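Sat 14:20. Reprocessing the chain from the morning session after the first attempt stalled halfway. Input below, unchanged.
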Amino acid sequence: MGRMITANRASSSSSSKTNDGGEEGAFIASAIAMGVPTLATLAYPSALVTNGLGLECATPLFGQSFSSLASVQHFSNAFGTDAFALIALTALYTLADAAKNSRLNSETYQRLALAMVLFTGSFAVAFLGAYLQSQATGETGPNAAAVGGLLVTFAPAFATSVKAIREYGPGHDETWARVGKDFAEAKNLNERSETGGYLELFYKVSFWTSLVVGGSFAFSPLSPLAIVNEMEPSSQLIQRAFGLATVFLLAPTQYVLIDAAKRGRLGGGTFKKLNLSIAASIALIDWMTIYTFGAATALSPTAAQLENASGGVYNYVGALAVSASIVAVYLYQGVFAKK
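Finished this time. Tokens:
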């Protein structure tokens, strides 16, 4: 009997390693499927915005010039949203590494897998919704090729993450119970571990800031910081997409760092990579904000052209000041955090 139990355990262990090996390859394939088109779009957003969404856009990196405030706004939204791809790709890489080392059952990687499900799923719903709305109303919306491309790009990450949660997670009810527990933990700003200290508080504040700011982009027809506010499906889509990425990808990743700070694990490779990916993404968004402000100013807009703007100079300056301080902390932790 003892030999049988030992054999069964060995068989189970072997099976787990085989499954993890399959998951590792699946996460790597998902990263490639997502990385090639998203990084290409980051470099040349006009391809998606003009050809896929039917909106004005220009890509300065390729010598194109902005012809209108709308083209500046569309570039800003597309580039800012696509910058979050760096976080998503880093999450997929760390999930592949976790699969390789049989750690997908860890709460850290279960949280990252859930973030990937929410991020990719929300984008699929948003693109499909905008497409159907445009078909029903005749307004400018994403074409079938853009929607299909998005689904092909994000489906592997969605499916692989769902599989990781189902096979290595604690179960449906326990997963959502953990989400509730995580929110309760993040809400308690006055309670910090001795190890986490004020750094843990920083990540908690960052988490809630992402939810509030991201929510204002994702769930409101008016952007909190926009040169122009447009109502057609395509314009709403790329405006709201920035918020969806903030709420469903950035914020969950920040909670992973809250937990790491609490446990004194920020020096681990996974958490340093996540810190660096967030720093890089926010730095790109800050560059875009500064650049497009200058580009819009160069167009010498009239008061009539700015009547639908929102946010104003105070929001602009405040957003940059906060972002600069945030980038510094994430960058420092990504480079210098110790185990």
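The chain has one domain: 2-336.
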